Structure formats: C-alpha cells, structure tokens
Amino acid sequence: MAELATLPEYMLRNAQQMADQPAMRLKELGIWKTYNWAQYTDQVRDLALGLASLGFAREDKLAIIGTNLPRLYWAQVAAQCMGGVPVPVYQDAIAKELAFVLRHSEAKAIVAENQEQVDKILSIRDQLPDLKWLIYCDERGMTGYDEDILKSYTEVQAVGKSFDSANAGYFDAEVAKAKASDVALICYTSGTTGDPKGVMLTHDNLLSCGRIFVANEDVRASDNFLAYLPMAWVGDTVYGLVISLLVGATNNCPERPSTVMRDLRELGPTGIIAPPAIWDGMLSNLQLKGASSSPLKRKVYAYFSGVAQRIENLKFDGKGIPLGLALRGKLGEFLVYGPIRDQLGLRRARWCLTGGAPMGPDTFRFFRGFGINLKQVYGMTEVAGLVSLQPNDQASPDTVGAPCAGIEVRIAEDGEVQVKSDGVFAGYFREEEKTAEAMSEDGWFRTGDAGLLNGQGHLVIIDRAKDVGKLGDGTPFAPQFVELKLKFSPFIDEAVSFGDGHPFISAMVAIDFETVGKWAEGQGMPYTNYMDLSQKPEIVALISDEIRKINQGLPEVSRIKRFLLLSKDLDADDNEITRTRKLRRGLIAEKYAPVIKAFYSGEKEVELRLAVTFEDGNESFVDARMTIQDAA
Fold this sequence. Notes:
This protein has 632 residues and is of the alpha/beta class. The protein folds into three domains: 7-202, Rossmann fold (3-Layer(aba) Sandwich), CATH 3.40.50.12780; 276-347 and 349-466, Rossmann fold, CATH 3.40.50; 468-630, GMP Synthetase, Chain A, domain 3. Helices cover 40% and strands 22% of the residues. The chain has 21 helices and 28 strands. The longest helix is centred in the middle third of the chain and has 22 residues, at 295-316. The radius of gyration is 25 Å and the shape is globular. The N and C termini lie far apart (61 Å).
C-alpha cells in the first residue's frame, strides 16, 4: 500500500479499500459490538464537522479523558481531521493534575467519558481560561446540568451531519490540508522530576515508528488488539490507534477496566503490549492459583514448570534440548502450557511485548517457557514509543533488543543512550528551553537512560542515568536492579531502594495487598486494612523470608541490609509514583527522609505523618509508627 502523509488519510483509505472489515469493537452488556471501517469513518466525520461548526479550528487542542472507548478514539482522529491536536489525559488523574495539563495545553474543547469526568472538569473550570466546550459521551446522570459549555457527543455529531449537508466537500478539503509535519498529538510525560511536559508528535513521527514496527513484527490486517492501556500513554496510541489505521487491524475496547482480564481471555488477541506490572500480576495470580489447587495439580504444575524453565534456559544458552526433555515439554504443552495460555487469553497471540519499565528475568523466562512469545521493546514518548525491539529468536531479559532499522542509537561518553530517527519529537509544547536541553548539540535526543550496546549490537538499559550512584566504598549502585529483584516476589508490589553515598543498601517495601491478604486469610489471620495487615508480625516475617531468599541470589555488596514495610502503598495521587507507576525518587526521598535517616543511624523504629490525597484534591493525614528490620 502507498505511504500516505497523515493518520486521517489512512482512515479514508481504509474506508475505501476495507469498508466492510472490522475496525473497532466495544463490549457492552456482555456483547461485542463491531464497527467496520466505513462506520468508523462516518463516526469520525460527523464529530469532526460538529466540532468545526462549533468553531474548532486548525491547531486548536482537544483534550480527551476517560477509559478506552471507540468514541474517545474517534475524537482523537476527528480533531486531526480538522487540523487540531488531540491531548489525551489520564482518566484517574486528580483535579489538581488535570488543571495543570489542561491549562498548559490550552485545551479549547474536552471530550469526557461520563458524569464523573465532567464533574472533575467543572470543579476546575475557573482554572481553564481557554475551555469553550465540554462534550460528554455517556448521557446518564447529565439531565440536571445547565452549564453553557456542556454538549452531548450525539448532539455534536447531529450538528456535524447538518453541517456536512450544507458544506459538501468541506471535510475532505480539511483533511487534504494537513501535512506530515503537522503536530498530530500532544502526549504529556509522567513527570517523575516535576511538572509533566507536553511532547509534540507529528504525523510523520507517529507513522514512521508505526511503519518501522510493522516492518519488524508480524502485523496483519486481520489482527485483533485489546485497547486497555491508558489513552494518555504513547504506547496506546502507537501500538493501538496508529497500527490499526496503518494496516487496518481491529482495536477492541473492554467493557470496563475491571473486566479486562475476562475480556482478554474471551477475545484472544493476536498481539498485546503490557507493562511489566501486568505480567508480574499475571504470574502472581498463577502462583496463587497453583498454591490453592489440589495436591495432584500442584505437583503437575510444579513439575512441568521446572521442565519449561530447563528448556528455556537451554535455548537461552544456545544449547540443544535432549530428546527426553523435549518429549516432556510436548506433554507439558498438552497438560499445562496450552491450558494456561488459554486461561490468560494468549493462545492466539503471535507476539507479546513488554516495555515502559525493566522486567525481572525470572518473570520473562517463565512466560517464554510456557510458549508465550514475550519480548522486550524500548522507547519513550519523545521518540514516539519505539527505539529497539527483540526478534523472536533473540528474546532476552538482559537487553531491550537491537535498534530497529531506520533508528540510530549511540552511547555518549557519560553512558547516556542517545537516539536519532524520524520518530524524534517536534519539541515540548511551550517549553523551548527544555526542548533544547533534551537535544545534543549535533541533533541527537538525550534519553536520560544509562546503557550500553553489547557484543551482538543489542541495547542494554542499566537505569536512569541520574539515578545511578555509588555506595560509600565506591561500588556502583543501580537502584532499579535491587527493586526488580524485590518485586519478583508475589508478595511485594513496590520497592524503593537507597544506597547512594551510604555504606549499604536499604529498602522500603510496599506489600501487594491482594496477594498478602489472600495469604493471611489462608492462615486464618484477621485484618482490617492495608496498615493493619502490613504491620502484623507474621507479615513482617513473611517479607523478611522473601528478602532472605532474594539476598541469597545477590552478590554480597548488592544485598539488602535493612528494610521497612510501608503502612500504605505508594500512590500516584500522593505524588509518590507517576500514573505509569514510575517512582518519583526525589519526592519520595524528601517525604520519607526520616526513614532514610533511621536506616543509616541504626534506629529500630520511625514515626511518620503521611498525607493521603483524595480525588478531589483534599488531603488527610495518617500517623504511623513503623519498625525497621535487619535483613537476614
């Protein structure tokens, strides 16, 4: 197929050449509703012209907030058709976070999923001077509102139909005006060190990375993808919306966030991308189900898990698989591996990707051993989500793959990974100085990641460059390495390690409330809430034993000497992690300074007053006394 310049042009091509093929599905009340490419295009056209009739013009910003819905994806493309710029935001962001992004992006219109999101926007309306229209998708609960900026999605589309009748050819003419260099998306960073930055990505940025991905991966027009990741994350746009438009594949929206795993199994996607936290969660659930099954099933599962791991280790080392082991693997496929892939909804998946954060090698090899083609992909918002990708036969937990053809990677003298490609962003919106800081003098994007290229030309990411430090004796210290080891335990949800400039490594640990809760119930142990459960002596002993096992697999210098169980989970609302679950290390170090001091002064207990932030921005405070443990 000929290369076109913009995303709307690909939509029109699909409507012409694949009119009856499925473009998008939505599960409602347990039934999958399908929209073909002709219907998809009609929906976009009506909304785009409705926006135009309201006065939405070229370069205007259209914010989008809500869970994954066809109407919200159509809104993105509709804005692009009129020469506008979509700005997806995190649906679970509190009002304070939303106010900054919506004000900074100069959002002129917002398309919101439902009453909950409308209320959130209305609560900060006085902070949004550019806002003219607030368009809601779900009309339930909206009859009592009389704000002048409110309009329903169907109302705007109806106006668009009338506008189309009176202005024949207007839609096609506006689409034709767009150029590959036009900004097609503003995607805000997670803001690990300060306020989020608006990354401007052009049609060329997005399409070039989409084409590179399709050239390196087995992507087909008949493919089905599950659209479940936050729409504000660049990965959802590139590996969902862009790939769908580029090849004609089908995006499928789950009924609601709580049904994602059920809908995943029912759909059986042919390809999927998920951050490590989701793969870790899948593994934890499998381990829990295995532990609670009958003795015979436990033995069968444990035996064939061992077989899978031995086979995978031999493959990884490039060694042959003995006939007897291969036969046991065939039997394991029938008894264990195939049924588990089916249970996870991955029986039809030809490729499964993980990215956005490092993955533990044990998790990676577990899924590979069970016949799931799990591979690592590396990218970030500023490079349209793609730098490197692992080939099927070179998947490894130790690298993020070879840089894709058309994407150049170099390692600077200080160890920083730098990138040059057609996917490199057009700049940060309204942030010229920060844009300049992000680029080298000779035009390479500075990722901020410390890494190296190994002997096979594969990229190895060590940590964020600014986070790599040294222990007191000069030994290099990469906090992510320790944290990954800790988070492989099914009982640990998050971990923050310390050691830079100190004589040893210590860690704050947040338990996995669901997994630890199930363990406690199995022991007949009552508890009331997260704080109560996390501070029980039995749970301290449980996590202490997990850390002991982890320490056994670490070199002496990298072992954790002291740890503390947090009385609350790390929360994005409390500014401790980002919406993509990246640690805000600077803020954590400031907030938990008494804990760090206690770790290295030999104290046994520490008292903290912790702020808990609610969705409306109000705060409450919880006083906690926590015991610091010496690790075995």
